[in-house]
Design brief:
6 helices, 0% strand, mainly alpha
Length: 135
């Protein structure tokens, strides 16, 4: 159906992915407004590393780049802000970086920013799945 390439000895990743997905759902349950639990770098960096590892093992690096479009835009906004600041002598491209803070400073409510970024994440995930048919 999706024409995924067969990767020998990667079946255990299914169990690992299911466990991580369940843990993330449990985390999100308690992270809704008002948040009772926060992840921080201690959880997000290993989670990102694991997702990157899974993409490399399954040979789906491009799909990860597309599916993580929101994260890519967030990182690019910081890079652009720093470069623009340095090359223009202190002027800013955004009010604040990463870009979600820019929207906060424009007057958007936090819930509005979060929901809009979720929607963009869903669109990016759908585009990533669509790339499976392009091969």
């Amino acid at each position: 159906m999706f024409h995924l390439p067969f990767v020998p000895r990667s079946a255990e990743l299914t169990v690992l992915c299911a466990a991580v997905a369940g843990a993330c759902l449990g985390f999100l349950w308690y992270n809704c407004l008002p948040a009772q639990v926060f992840m921080g770098d201690t959880g997000s960096l290993p989670l990102g590393g694991l997702i990157g590892y899974i993409a490399v093992v399954t040979r789906q690096e491009l799909m990860l780049f597309i599916a993580g479009g929101v994260f890519v835009v967030e990182a690019l906004s910081v890079i652009l802000q720093i470069l623009y600041f340095r090359f223009t002598g202190g002027r800013r491209l955004f009010r604040c970086a990463p870009i979600h803070h820019h929207f906060h400073l424009l007057g958007w409510a936090e819930a509005k920013v979060v929901v809009r970024f979720w929607l963009l994440g869903v669109v990016c995930a759908a585009l990533a799945l669509a790339t499976l048919k392009l091969r």
